[in-house]
């Protein structure tokens, strides 16, 4: 735990008693703050009170006595309208902040300020955060990882010399961190998202930009430049004198880190300083993961790791659960858990990463369904449809993709595994009859049973993690073929 000493002996209102809210309350109490905590959920209030956290209805509180309102990131700050606690705080002239802000204040109070890398972006935050932490651990660093991914930031170990914090930051968290000042700030990409919470895409982008604008003096801003918003942010950061490292998976850069074929290349003044290949690293398949790898490379370099150490660390990265997670290979069939793909945009990344796909899709559908994925249907050998979306997806696939409605995940896994194994065995036998060399090549290119639902899970599972866990269990129960 990181005790919050910056609010010692001061009255603090705290709203939102989920996981991060409870961690924040504990940290404030450990630092000597006088906390009054509340939540719209009576069960959450009861749980906090059982832990000894002072609770009180903030509707009836005297707000003039509070030094701050600490708001959980899931509670609306501005849109669709400010939460009632925010209005009460604003009326009383009380600052509204979150747990990332409290961490930043404690970091600045440390006798020797520890390193701090903050990662944001519309897509890829969690993988980049996990990958950067992995690289630093390979390099022998004392790493703490958390924030929007993993443990709540104030539940991590306290600051000390030599420690490195690798923190994923959502736009909600950044909005509540006015003095966010990482040593390394990473912005991967920007596309319209969370408009219900930010009002417009322009406001959403402006919130994300704060992470880059706040990079401390002497620090490094790492920015993907493959979208217009991020490219402009990089230019503005550079204009203020910040050190900016640009990233691209779409173009070669004279200065920066970019993808060239399967190689990640670090370039300076038009010359290649270092490169390494992502070929064969299953956990980093696809252009989206190449961007994550480029960002983690740039972040690790900014934190002092040698490029050779980083390249070695990339090869040993295990990947994240539910994000193109390689569960198991049976015979010549690879099973991949991409349960985190809850919409078509996310599923597209998986479909572009494989050939010969036996695709398990469906669940609670999102607007637009899978129609945007039509350009990738040629990669799908057959689709196995589950959940509420099954009939809708079948209509979209039509005659373009062989498919069957399985209804539930257990049926889909069994049918996909059987079909993939039969087709893979036939392909290998056909190749062997033609050429031993071709047979060897075929074995290096397995068929893929891919759970990438392009749907929410809530029709059959509590969340995408439970759905992914169920897929993993079903795959691990399959007999070797």
Automatic annotation (TrEMBL):
EC number, as in UniProt: 6.3.2.9
Residue numbers binding ATP: 121-127
Location(s), subcellular: Cytoplasm
Entry-linked Gene3D superfamilies: Mur ligase, C-terminal domain, Mur-like, catalytic domain, NAD(P)-binding Rossmann-like Domain
GO molecular function annotations of the record: ATP binding; UDP-N-acetylmuramoylalanine-D-glutamate ligase activity
GO cellular-component term (any): cytoplasm
UniProt domain Mur ligase C-terminal: residue ranges: 322-423
SUPFAM superfamilies, per the entry: MurCD N-terminal domain, MurD-like peptide ligases, catalytic domain, MurD-like peptide ligases, peptide-binding domain
EC primary class: ligase
GO BP annotation list: cell division; cell wall organization; peptidoglycan biosynthetic process; regulation of cell shape
Mur ligase central domain residues: 119-298
Keywords: ATP-binding, Cell cycle, Cell division, Cell shape, Cell wall biogenesis/degradation, Cytoplasm, Ligase, Nucleotide-binding, Peptidoglycan synthesis
Pathway membership: Cell wall biogenesis; peptidoglycan biosynthesis
Catalysed transformations (reactions): UDP-N-acetyl-alpha-D-muramoyl-L-alanine + D-glutamate + ATP = UDP-N-acetyl-alpha-D-muramoyl-L-alanyl-D-glutamate + ADP + phosphate + H(+)
A Pfam family assignment: Mur_ligase_M
Similarity-based family: Belongs to the MurCDEF family.
Described function: Cell wall formation. Catalyzes the addition of glutamate to the nucleotide precursor UDP-N-acetylmuramoyl-L-alanine (UMA).
Protein name: UDP-N-acetylmuramoylalanine--D-glutamate ligase
Source organism of the structure: Ancylobacter aquaticus
Gene, per the UniProt record: murD
């Amino acid at each position: 735990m990181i005790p919050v000493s910056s609010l010692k002996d001061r009255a603090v209102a705290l709203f939102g008693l989920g996981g991060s809210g409870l961690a924040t309350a504990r940290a404030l109490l450990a630092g000597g703050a006088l906390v009054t905590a509340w939540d719209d959920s009576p069960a959450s209030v009861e749980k906090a009170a059982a832990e000894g956290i002072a609770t009180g209805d903030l509707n009836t509180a005297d707000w003039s006595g509070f030094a701050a309102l600490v708001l959980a990131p899931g509670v609306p700050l501005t849109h669709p309208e400010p939460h009632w606690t925010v209005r009460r705080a604003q009326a009383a002239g009380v600052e509204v902040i979150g747990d990332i802000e409290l961490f930043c204040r404690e970091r600045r109070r440390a006798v020797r300020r520890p390193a701090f890398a903050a990662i944001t972006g519309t897509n890829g935050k969690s993988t980049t955060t996990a990958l950067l932490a992995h690289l630093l651990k390979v390099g022998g660093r004392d790493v703490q990882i958390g924030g929007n991914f993993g443990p709540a930031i104030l539940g991590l170990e306290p600051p000390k010399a030599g420690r490195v914090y690798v923190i994923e930051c959502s736009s909600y968290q950044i909005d509540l961190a006015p003095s966010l000042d990482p040593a390394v700030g990473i912005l991967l990409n920007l596309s319209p998202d969370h408009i219900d919470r930010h009002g417009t895409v322009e406001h959403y982008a402006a919130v994300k930009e704060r992470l880059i604008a706040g990079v401390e003096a002497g620090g490094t801003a790492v920015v993907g430049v493959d979208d217009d918003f991020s490219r402009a942010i990089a230019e503005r950061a550079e204009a203020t004198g910040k050190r900016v490292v640009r990233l691209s998976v779409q173009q070669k850069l004279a200065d920066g880190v970019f993808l060239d074929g399967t190689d990640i290349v670090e370039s300076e003044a038009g010359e290649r300083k270092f490169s390494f290949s992502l070929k064969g690293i299953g956990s980093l398949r696809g252009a989206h993961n190449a961007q994550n790898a480029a960002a983690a490379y740039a972040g690790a370099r900014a934190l002092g790791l040698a490029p050779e150490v980083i390249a070695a660390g990339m090869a040993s990265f295990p990947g994240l659960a539910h994000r193109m997670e390689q569960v198991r290979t049976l015979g010549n069939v690879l099973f991949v858990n991409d349960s985190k793909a809850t919409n078509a945009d996310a599923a597209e990344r998986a479909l572009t990463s494989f050939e010969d796909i036996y695709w398990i899709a469906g669940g609670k559908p999102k607007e637009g369904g899978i129609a945007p994925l039509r350009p990738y249907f040629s990669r799908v050998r057959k689709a196995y449809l589950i959940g509420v979306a099954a009939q809708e997806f079948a209509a979209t696939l039509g005659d373009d993709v062989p498919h069957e409605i399985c209804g539930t995940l257990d049926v889909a896994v069994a049918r996909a595994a059987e079909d993939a194994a039969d087709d893979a065995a036939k392909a290998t036998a056909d190749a062997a009859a033609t050429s031993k060399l071709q047979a060897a090549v075929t074995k290096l290119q397995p068929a893929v049973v891919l759970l990438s639902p392009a749907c929410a899970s809530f029709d059959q599972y509590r969340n995408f993690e439970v759905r992914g866990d169920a897929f993993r269990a079903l795959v691990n129960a399959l007999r070797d073929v």
